Amino acid sequence: MTSREDRAGLYDHSTGRIGRAARLLRQRGVLEPFRLVRKHGLAESARFISRNVRHLIADRLARKWDRDHNVDTAGSIQLAMLDVVGPNRDKGNECVCTSPKSFDFIMKSLPSDLGGTTFIDIGSGKSRTLLLASHYPFSKIVGVEFARELVEIAQRNLRSYKNPRKVCDTLSVVQADAAAYEFPDTPLLVYFYNPFSKDVFDVVIANLVASLKAKPRRCFVVYGSSSHSAIDWARPAIRATGVFEELPVPPMPSFLDAVRVIDYAVFRLDEKKLARAG
Ligand SMILES: C[S@@+](CC[C@H](N)C(=O)[O-])C[C@H]1O[C@@H](n2cnc3c(N)ncnc32)[C@H](O)[C@@H]1O
Fold this sequence. Notes:
alpha/beta, binds S-adenosylmethionine, single chain, Rossmann fold, 7-stranded mixed beta sheet, globular
């Protein structure tokens, strides 16, 4: 096994890098790193090392954030062994949480008057994003997550989270397949961080547009992706609805608490286009 278990006993792929490297040295000898550099070339080897160092730093910072705030959100939890509702397990991505610095950076592109708005994280994992959203004056914060074990961890986190920045207290998580989720009829900020493949996303975004047509109201959509290059298909898919306008946003800096730089896009519902779309 190349991974270890997280605090709740779930299969966590983010830990064990140093152990794996030590095992390789023991098994193949101390010259193995030189053999690997010769095989893959200097540039590729440097990229490999910097990727792994970055993972290690981001992982340490995530665990420190958890200790500081009395929660469990770190890790890279694989979905294969989890108890999932709905038919879309194989289309879902592993549970890796948005980095706190990246989230705060994204929020700078959104309006500050969030009263009356419900923040919804589609594929909310262990709830890190819900906790971070509670630093902003949303009326309600809702997580939608299809894996029972992650919902249970999230619910414990919502109870135990300690942070003086918290200004919203109405947080909850529902266990549901995002494709079957019905959006509440309040103003919305719908957040996606690389949760699943395009076919599930198409269903969720169509459900959102149908809900907005049934009751027009303010709505923002944020899409973030780091691996899988999901932003490359998510951005055109949101534009293709014909009812959202993409807002200009600054590029994401390379924050140390993020395993990779997050590419992101922010959209605002254009109510005139919505009315024209019938
Ligand atoms: C990359 S994680 C994002 C976690 C969280 N949104 C964040 O930003 O910290 C993706 C999450 O989406 C969940 N997921 C994947 N497919 C889903 C689906 N069809 N319905 C609900 N949740 C889903 C996974 O279980 C995982 O927890």
